[in-house]
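Dear support,

I submitted the protein below through the web form. The confirmation email said the job was done, but the results page showed an empty box. After a refresh the structure appeared. I'm attaching both so you can tell me whether what I see now is the final result or a partial one.
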Amino acid sequence: MKILKLSPLLVILMVLGLVAVACQPAAVEPTAEEPVAEEIATEEPAEQEEKRYVFGLVTKAMNNPFWEMMHEGALEVAEKNNVEIIYLAPTQANNLEEQTRLVDDLITRKVDGIVLVPVDSEGIIPAIERANAAGIPVALANTKANGGEFITFSAIENYDAMTQVAEYVVEKLGGKGKVVILEGTAGAQTAIDRLRAINDVLAKYPEIEILASQTADFTRAKALEVMENLLQTYPEIDAVLACNDEMALGAIEALDAAGRLEGTIVSGFDGNSDALKAVESGRMLVTMFQNAPAQAGDAVQALLDYLAGKPVEERIQTEGVLIDSSNVSEFTQYIQQ
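What the results page shows now:
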């Protein structure tokens, strides 16, 4: 018999192969308790931390208690919804250039939304458009803009509300007398609507004479100056219709200093703390409470709803209340001591 000779190299390879087979673990039959394909355990995802939004609030001025009431209304809604409010306003009241810079600053800071009270309804449009381009939603409060994209406009109907004030003054005058009108900031939608309402009402009463109609830029100091000049020009003034409370209060100061407050009707518009005190003390006949806290609070809520994908009303109307001596006691919570 012929014996097959293997080369030493082949022998080594065969031995190594046998050793490798011997070292393999024995196969384990699967049991009912141990499934063949083991399921991968997954952990429950940790609950995501609630996002804290940052909104900007930009009003027209810092020196008017009405805007602070608006700030407080925004804060009330913000605190309930984990929102931070950055409150900004021009140091020079009703300054468009400064307000524009403030809006641009908020855009640079990449806030999640902006509540804006435009100083100038036309002039603020480019700033709103820059916010639009940056993808930052804008909600307008109190004063409407004439352009740009905004998710809502929260405010009183200024024309209708001022119509009530003017009619009330005419009634107290008995349909006749000499009156002065203190206008708001030129270009602001609120100023335009309120002045139009006064003129439309007074036009129905031929025995009412408009002595003068001048702007005092919605500020107390300017109204004081304007009224002092008008008092020198007109020896008889029966009523002053001011397009906001601050101007009414400035007029009251001038009338009082001249010894002519008694017997002169003064009306305002806003329902701020100082005006309510003036109505309470009899120095101001009437004002229109336009609920600044609600205007701002509703705008903040609209931004939250928009970011949550909820529907938002294009127009949120705030109801106004005519305030005189008969009902001022119902608004004491808005009077700051």
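Response: this is the final, complete result; the empty box was a page-load delay. The chain is about 40% helix and 15% strand.
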